[in-house]
Please model this.
Amino acid sequence: MPHDHHHHDHDHDHDAHALLPSDPALRVKALETLLVDKGYVDPAAMDAILDFYQNKVGPQIGARVVARAWTDPAFKAALLADASATLAAEGLLGRQGEHVVAVENTPEVHNVVVCTLCSCYPWPLLGIPPTWYKSDAYRARVVREPRRVLAEFGLDLPEGQAVRVWDSTAEIRYLVIPMRPEGSEGLDAEALTRWVTRNSMIGTGLAERPA
Ligand code: FE
Model:
């Protein structure tokens, strides 16, 4: 048994916060247990908050907006002209996303969103930001070498398509409207929603091609 799994695991565990498990899900669970044990949070309240951001405010809200933009030209035009007003009229804006700008991907331009300073993100549309969005590496590198970073997400853009990087702030958050996928011609907005991925609305992915 020259190389067991434990040996490999230890290579990743030399950092100072190794008290918490390295797996994010376990880490969250450990933190939650700690907070509940200390009486800082009520587990029912915590579940309600998580449920709210995962199931009610999650990326499917943004996905519905995108699917509607694909199928309703007037809505898309309004969204691109003034996303804040258009979304506010639908009751879709709120905390951590009062001012939103929508940017549309085309064969000529691919848009990608970052917050170079911290992790500003359109919460009401996309839910909780993914861990990588908050990472130093993403925030620094996507500005310097966007194509390379996107390739690491599995997104190889055609040479002729320009990449535009949008830097979010506490004032302005961005929503990418990805290109409507091939093979989705017959689908209505409802059916299209499920093919709009979270990453496609950040710009680190594309909408999925319907299976
Ligand atoms: Fe930020």
